[in-house]
Amino acid sequence: MRNKETTKQNIPDGWREVCFEDVLSFERPDNYIVKSTNYSQNNKIPVLTANKAFVLGYTAEDFDIYKKNPVIIFDDFTTDSKYVDFPFKVKSSAIKILKSKDKKQAKLKFLYEKIKSINFPRGAHKRYYISQYQKQKIALPPIKEQQKIAEILGAVDDDIAKTQEVIDATEKLKKGLMQQLFSKSNVKDKRWGIVKLQDVCKVRQGLQIPIKKRFKEGGENRFIYITLKYLKALDNVEYIENPSKSVICGKEDILMTRTGNTGIVVTNVSGVFHNNFFLVDFDREKIVKDFLVYYLRSGKIQKIILDRAGTTTIPDLNHGDFYSINFVMPSIKEQQKIAEILSAIDKKISVNKKLKAKLTQLKKGLMQDLLSGRVRTNI
């Protein structure tokens, strides 16, 4: 790639200014709207939306299918868009189906990337494409440069998609293992016992601290105040001074939310824990901490916790409901082995999520450089 300065009009040399309506035609989706939302994975025809979900489901309707691909589907209200290169149907009449008017002048994939790069201001709930969006002016490079830019950005998209596939497959593997390992019906080894949590754990609540007694800076005998708000944004730190030892937790302890967003399990944090947390004080001679963490986070136990917390405005899990939950307890060595296996899977998920984040950031930078002409491709 080589850098090249733009002209005074901010249009790079060799590029031209056009509106989307100059290079894109649109079609209403009326003929391709699904008649029934009775979707099934056993069906073959995808029903699409332009928002994040993309595939709403699969329909058995084998008629009125859009097949003139590739196209861009564009949500007239949200201005979300997706590039589609396979047959499909849609659910909403708000979709516009966009195609390149002249493939020799404008590559559809380049135009899609251009659309994705635009931060379009939306206000009232209304349709935007015909009245405003298609009239936006863009800088359009020569066709060969469009193709090259689309290929570069597409290659990064492919890497992002492959990384997400690895994440999805690994999370599916983890979910299946947890269902199998923590299922009462799969306890065949007589050395595995089933007890109540009250037999191996005790819980205690944290402390509600008035705002006026919280500090913004650390100091002697001051501890970080652990709240859900703090856990979501670790930069929003508050401190509590001279708290009771009963509300102080260390990194080897386990916390679990008991009210509101009930069932969130937290470990490896230290400080003073808020009143909406339980500290789960477990028998460390019988239980491996990470095994218990994974057990409490398992789908089956999470469902039990949520059911017992109730469906009121503010769900609340009381001590008795927690204590009455069954706990599948293998030997210490087996607990350790199970925790190590699940931890290794978590590490793989974490590594790939970080990789995806880096690739996404790379794509963002490339879009800013290539679609503006600030960096030019060698063609």
Shape estimate = elongated
Specify the biggest β-sheet.
5 strands, mixed
CATH architecture of the largest domain: Alpha-Beta Complex
From the 3D structure, determine the CATH topology of the largest domain. Adenine-n6-DNA-methyltransferase TaqI, Chain A, domain 2
CA-CA gap between termini: 9 Å
Give the mean pLDDT. Answer: 92
Q: Label the structural class.
A: alpha+beta
Rg, rounded, reads 28 Å
Enumerate the strands of the largest sheet in spatial order, edge to edge or round the barrel: 13-15-14-19-16
Total domain units: 2
The overall strand count is 22
* Unreliable stretches covering 5 or more consecutive residues: 1-8
The number of helices is 9
- Strand content is 15-25%
Secondary structure topology:
Elements: E1 2-3, E2 16-19, H1 20-23, E3 24-27, E4 45-48, E5 55-59, E6 71-75, E7 81-84, E8 89-90, E9 95-100, H2 108-117, E10 137-140, H3 143-181, E11 193-196, H4 197-200, E12 201-205, E13 214-215, E14 222-226, H5 228-232, E15 239-241, E16 248-249, E17 254-257, E18 265-267, E19 271-273, E20 277-282, H6 289-297, H7 299-309, H8 319-323, E21 326-329, H9 332-370, E22 375-376
Parallel strand pairs: 4-8, 14-19
Antiparallel strand pairs: 1-22, 2-10, 3-9, 4-5, 6-7, 6-9, 11-21, 12-20, 13-15, 14-15, 16-19, 17-18, 17-20
Helix pairs in contact: 3-9
Provide an overview of this structure:
The protein folds into two domains: 2-140, Adenine-n6-DNA-methyltransferase TaqI, Chain A, domain 2, CATH 3.90.220.20; 193-329, Alpha-Beta Complex (Adenine-n6-DNA-methyltransferase TaqI, Chain A, domain 2). The chain contains nine helices and 22 strands. The chain has helices at residues 20-23, 108-117, 143-181, 197-200, 228-232, 289-297, 299-309, 319-323, 332-370; strands at 2-3, 16-19, 24-27, 45-48, 55-59, 71-75, 81-84, 89-90, 95-100, 137-140, 193-196, 201-205, 214-215, 222-226, 239-241, 248-249, 254-257, 265-267, 271-273, 277-282, 326-329, 375-376. A five-stranded mixed sheet has the order 13-15-14-19-16. Strand 17 (254-257) and strand 18 (265-267) form a beta hairpin.
